[in-house]
């Protein structure tokens, strides 16, 4: 059989959930204004946050879109607005449980092709570890986290404690930027998404490197950064230069220059243009790039994998790796290997038929 095509970056929104103010206390919670059977608006308090469609909660629509794009397996993660890191942990864990349980419900009807990732109250590492363990037992395959908790970046001791636990229990981690700063210069043209998201991810990759996280956590940690690692790959040379020339300020707790850590983490392929993907592959190595789409949101890529297929500089083996082989390594539970992952997702003995956009026996 061929290597399955695996999209590691997609999101879901449940069709409904309990009144969070009644369930958790407090006010200003997200809620869903249902406008029709196929359309809704995520609200935060009285503010409109994002319009969403039925593909966010209907697995049949999701599977049809996957078939049209030739995607065999899709990792389905929470939408970051629900992370609630600014809330007390006792409230945030109640929210996490609500959305995590509904994520299992959404993906349960995917025939094994929809792989759920959970969310955790990252502001409290002990509670976050407990919720991750609960979710792994319930069928989640990994966890999505935001790239920071308030002013705490990924080198914070509590977050490092959680990442260490992820490594110990074999849970892959998907890092998504969120909670970008606003202001007059950023609140127009979706500038927080167009410039703030890449910068947020760049900063958090640097925090893991210069904060010495990769020198402290087990090498078994499997972690992937969304949106091609933000602006980090483009400015990797600048970071290395600064590490050598201004080590008094830049080196932090890192043992080696930033470029020597790129084999410790993955990035996804949501960069849209072959020239950008070539830079990404050159900076990170082809083995560290995973197919991602940001489905079903409008700033994502459709058809999924377009940039990989358009990139004629890739060798056949590199293309196969980007489309799915590398993701098998990322998802492999507790190092059990690619065959185990393929079996787990019901793909054994099935060959991807790319021309027809379907899987055949």
Automatic annotation (TrEMBL):
One of its GO terms (molecular function) is metal ion binding. It comes from the Bacteria. Residues 335-361 are annotated as: Disordered. The keyword Cell inner membrane does not apply. Residues 6-331 form the Amidohydrolase-related domain. InterPro entries: ACMSD (IPR032465), Amidohydro-rel (IPR006680), Metal_Hydrolase (IPR032466). The keyword Metal-binding applies. Pathway: Secondary metabolite metabolism; quinolate metabolism. GO terms for biological process: secondary metabolic process. Monomer. Belongs to the metallo-dependent hydrolases superfamily. ACMSD family. This is 2-amino-3-carboxymuconate-6-semialdehyde decarboxylase. It comes from Salinispora tropica (strain ATCC BAA-916 / DSM 44818 / JCM 13857 / NBRC 105044 / CNB-440). The lineage of its organism: Bacteria, Bacillati, Actinomycetota, Actinomycetes, Micromonosporales.
């Amino acid at each position: 059989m061929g290597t399955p095509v695996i999209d590691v970056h997609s999101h879901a929104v449940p069709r409904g959930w309990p009144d969070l103010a009644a369930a958790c206390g407090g006010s200003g919670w997200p809620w869903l204004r249902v406008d029709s059977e196929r359309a809704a608006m995520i609200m935060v308090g009285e503010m409109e946050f994002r319009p969403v469609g039925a593909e966010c909660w209907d697995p049949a629509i999701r599977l049809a879109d996957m078939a049209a794009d030739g995607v065999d397996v899709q990792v389905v993660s929470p939408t970051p607005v629900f992370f609630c890191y600014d809330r007390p942990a006792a409230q945030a864990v109640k929210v996490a449980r609500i959305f995590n349980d509904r994520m299992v419900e959404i993906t349960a009807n995917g025939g094994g092709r929809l792989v759920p990732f959970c969310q955790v109250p990252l502001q409290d590492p002990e509670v976050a570890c407990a919720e991750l363990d609960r979710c792994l037992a319930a069928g989640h395959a990994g966890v999505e986290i935001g790239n920071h908790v308030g002013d705490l970046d990924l080198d914070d001791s509590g977050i490092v404690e959680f990442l260490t636990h992820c490594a110990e229990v074999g849970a892959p981690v998907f890092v998504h930027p969120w909670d970008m700063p606003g202001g007059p210069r950023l609140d127009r043209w979706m500038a927080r998404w167009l410039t703030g998201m890449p910068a947020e991810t760049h900063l958090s990759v640097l925090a893991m490197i210069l904060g010495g996280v990769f020198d402290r956590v087990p090498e078994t940690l499997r972690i992937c950064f969304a949106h091609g690692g933000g602006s980090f790959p483009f400015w990797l040379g600048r970071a290395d230069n600064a590490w050598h020339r201004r080590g008094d300020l830049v080196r932090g707790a890192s043992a080696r220059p930033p470029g020597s850590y790129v084999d410790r983490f993955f990035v996804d392929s949501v960069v849209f243009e072959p020239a950008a993907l070539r830079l990404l592959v050159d900076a990170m190595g082809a083995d560290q790039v995973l197919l991602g789409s940001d489905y079903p949101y409008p700033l994502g890529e459709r058809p999924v994998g377009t940039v990989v297929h358009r990139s004629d500089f890739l060798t056949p083996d590199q293309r196969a790796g980007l489309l799915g082989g590398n993701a098998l390594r990322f998802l492999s539970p507790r190092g059990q290997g690619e065959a185990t992952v393929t079996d787990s997702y019901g793909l054994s003995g099935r060959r991807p038929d790319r021309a027809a956009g379907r899987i055949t026996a």
